TrEMBL record:
Name of the molecule in the record: Xanthine dehydrogenase family protein subunit M
Keywords: FAD, Flavoprotein
Entries under SMART domains matching the protein: CO_deh_flav_C
Residues annotated as domain FAD-binding PCMH-type: 1-222
Pfam families found in the cross-reference section: CO_deh_flav_C, FAD_binding_5
Domain of life assignment: Bacteria
């Protein structure tokens, strides 16, 4: 690990100002950043420690939604009574990610900003445009079992690893930030993550020094909520494919459906046209298959990850049909 300067921030605005210098980075739980620093994949010259800031808590909003402090741990958020009762897919997604020890340290903001687990990103001997722009993408012709089949580019096919972010995408979260000059803004999560195109090292719309302070959720829409994750082993593994869903329907009829996918793309993948195809329709195989066509429009495997395309179709069909039948114990009324 290379040497760096270090300071503890006293409040959010001071932290943002301190992190506005070149090559500065925030550290909170450090569950991802410390690994990256040890491998010298990320080499910040200055660390701004957020550990003494108020984590922010979990509190209802006047419109019936929820506001989650940026420093709230994944364990506390997953166990929060309001989250479990009204946003169960978020609790399920959090519990599907990492180990209990990591969830105790990982924070809400840090989880949103997790770096990809693409093996070539972590292999400093291999070209990787996300780690070192302009060097190439080893995954395109390499072992790409975990990589993206939609949303990627000729420069990068890494996927976003966060389970929580997929749930937040389905729930229409908004991300609150403060900038080094004290300005605040609210960013809908649908516009928070960038696609790689030719700049895969730029993953979000955050500006240098801009600090996430909270995440807000609107009131949950009616319907059965659920988070389904397919992975290589039963615990502590990243998603091959995951689906966060909210399906309002019964008796073979769908009134409304929302879903976001993980493990599929460089960001949590949500396609409004696919959801529109499942509004006020019968939940038959042809209708669900059409929605899957729209969700996967432009999808292309790269050899080892070809299986993700049919797997996504089957998982979406399972989630929607079981929600409408009301027979899946893992799908809970929100």
């Amino acid at each position: 690990m290379r040497s760096f300067s270090y300071e503890r921030a006293s409040d959010a605005r001071a932290a943002a100002k301190s992190a506005s210098v070149q090559d500065a980075s925030f550290i909170a739980g450090g569950t991802n950043l410390l690994d990256l620093m040890k491998l010298e994949i990320v080499v910040p010259a200055h660390l701004v420690d957020l550990g003494r800031l108020d984590p922010g808590g979990v509190a209802p909003t006047p419109d019936g939604g929820l506001r989650i402090g940026a420093g709230v741990s994944n364990s506390i958020l997953a166990a929060d009574p309001t989250v479990r009762a009204r946003y169960p897919l978020l609790s399920q997604a959090l519990l599907a990610g990492a180990s209990p020890q990591l969830r105790n340290k990982a924070t809400t903001a840090g989880n949103l900003l997790q770096r990809t687990r693409c093996g070539y990103f972590y292999d400093t001997a291999a070209p990787c445009n996300k780690r070192q722009p302009g060097t190439g993408c080893s995954a395109l012709q390499g072992f790409n079992r975990m990589n993206a089949v939609v949303g990627g580019s000729t420069d990068c096919i890494a996927v976003h690893p966060s389970d929580m972010a997929v749930a937040m995408m389905a729930l229409d979260a908004t991300i609150e930030t403060v900038a080094p000059n004290g300005d605040t803004r609210r960013i809908p999560i649908a516009g928070f993550y960038r696609l790689p195109e030719h700049t895969p090292h730029l993953e979000t719309v955050l500006q240098p020094g801009e600090l996430i302070t909270a995440v807000t959720l609107p009131p949950p829409p009616p319907g059965l909520q659920g988070y389904r994750k397919i992975r290589d082993r039963a615990s502590y593994a990243f998603a091959l494919i995951s689906v966060a869903s909210i399906v309002d329907g019964a008796g073979g009829h769908i009134r409304h459906a929302r879903f976001a996918c993980g493990g599929l793309a460089p960001r949590p993948w949500r396609v409004p046209a696919a959801e529109a195809a499942l509004a006020n329709v019968s939940a038959d195989a042809e209708t669900i298959d059409h929605a899957a066509d729209l969700l996967l429009q432009g999808a292309a495997g790269h050899g080892h990850n070809d299986f993700k395309i049919p797997m996504t179709r089957r998982l979406l069909a399972h989630v929607v049909s079981t929600a409408v039948a009301g027979s899946d114990q893992e799908l809970i009324h929100g």
